[in-house]
Model the fold of this input.
Amino acid sequence: MTFVITQSCCNDAHCVSVCPVNCIHPTPDEPDFATTEQLYVDPRSCIDCGACASACPVDAIFPAESLSAPLAGHAERNEAYFDGLPVQPEWAATRWPRTLPSGTGLRVAVIGTGPAACYTAQTLLRTTDARVTIIEREDLPGGLVRYGVAPDHPTTKRVSGSFAWIFGHERVTMRLRTEVGRDVSLDDLRATHHAVVAAVGAVEDRRLDIPGEQLPGVIAGGDFARWVNGHPAAPPPDLTSSRAVVIGNGNVALDVARLLAADPDSLPPDLAPHVKAALRRSRVREVVVLGRRGPEHAAYTGSELTALRYLPGVSTVVDDTPGVAGTIEGAGAVGSAAAVRSTGAKAALLQGIERVAVDWSQEPTGRRIVLRFGSAPLEVRGVGRATGVALDAFTINAGLVVTSIGRRGRALAGLPFDESQGTVPHSGGRVVDPTTGQVQPGLYVAGWIKRGSTGGIGANRFDAEETVGALVEDGASGRLPQPTDAPRWRRLLRLG
Done:
């Protein structure tokens, strides 16, 4: 029997590197890797060795015969990906990372502890003898994995375990509760290190810029994720209404809908006590997920949508608005190669979900998630607090509105910043002055602050490797500036 990669795939391709028969695709060298939702095992060439399952950092790979009902469809999806593709494509050329000789005395500061920062530190430790300072503003490390991944996705959160060794490494100094720009400056780091890598992620939620967005009862998806993950400073959502509206149709939007609609007792037992207590008191029974465009343009992954269909006691329906039915039926078969390989075939995944003409004048009764497409919000209605979301022809009454339309980076004092993109200008990870086009020696970026909020956890591995490759090349060529005040770091943070 073949092995199957399932919905919690992190795309960091550890499984690709250990497969002895080259049956896992797309590989990092193939064009589809940049856009694929997950990786897939070719059942035609899999030899059932299990090496991929052992290497997977998030426990996303299982023998086909052991798949539970919610995961059973992934066997079909893995097989469909290879429809029309050759068996065992050519092996990619071996890539050897650039390294530095020992004894360089290299010191590198990495800002952040999310996946991009951890992949950066990991690559530095494995390819150089650098001493690495990791700086984190929160009380605990983890970044997006700790506070952005839904708590009922424990396998995805498990990727943090593969980074745990970094924080205790003898060449790593980690400083928590330390914010660059408040506790230390970028100039402090540059004076005490040969290089600084900013891997601070995309920390701000994008705004809708519609009237009423600032009303009480409106909360950003990122703030909801931090709250449900137990962040002590996250604002709690208002759960006193029977209906909530989530604006956006990416994975975070579906996470919010799922967590609001689910029976709290079905959620992980280690959920923060105050969060579980609030969800038990919640009056929310219906969650409306508003997509501004049609179902073929949905930003969520197929696996996240499929997970909604297996929520105990919760029905998921599609609001049968004009044009939606034709788009869904014309999208091809669910198990076809097009539905797996084409982002435009997302609509096919809705074929097994009931379509209903929702009567918005009725109060919700049972627990339900409603997917409504082609509906751009015009205004959040309410006097003193949110009471609904206005669309073209009517208003959906709701006491909780969650905005989830993506994230953007925030300027870091001392680094150039592209306000329109929410990223730091760079060339292959090297920070660039946007006015002169000149590389800023010793300054680098990795992750979402580098490329924008696209790609999952695993995409940060190859992003970080590119950045570290540039840093190592600069070190080998003598282009890294020398620290001007090495003892200053210990004085600043009272390390010695």
About this structure: The mean pLDDT is 91. The CA atoms of residues 388 and 397 lie 4 Å apart. The first strand starts at residue 3 and ends at 5. Residues 459-476 form the longest helix (18 residues).
